Amino acid sequence: MTFKSKEEMNNFKNMFLHGIYLGLYGFVKYLPFPFFHYFRYFVIKIFAPNIRSKSISDGVTIYFPWNISIGKNSTLNQGVIIDGFGGVKIGEGVRIASGSVINTADHNFEDPKEFIYKQGYICAGVTIEDDVWIGANVCINKGVTIGKGSVVGGGSVVTKNIPPYSIAVGVPAKVVKKRNTNNDKELDA
Asked: Name one Pfam family in it (predicted).
């Protein structure tokens, strides 16, 4: 985790780029399915060359898109919010259901004698590996890696790493089961 100052987040370059990006994105953010996924993708792509998925639903909000990479065939469904300030890496074939939030920055509050808003931020990136399914209304906190092939149940709050091929649910999210990665499938006789 890194500490970042309020000035670093609010520097002129970030605010200027972010203002232009949000101004353009505002025109396409809520346009309906099916073809407007592509318009959203093209506006975001201007500011985020590492986004390779075109499936971005209406109402998706992405902050600091230049700090985000998204692999091919991944989907962001309605109302997803991604805070890219601390960096976000989303692999290929990832499904993120509606209302989910990826948060990479929190307020620092170590000094009880100082206003929280003056203490800067604690930032850490989020990594979601390939072939992950994030259920609806999941909150993924800073510094977390969700392993390849995992499933996170709806409404969960992810505060710690989730190993590959796990099923995790709850607040905070806990691994309740491993997915069967055995390719030998038995058929019922």
From this structure: Hexapep
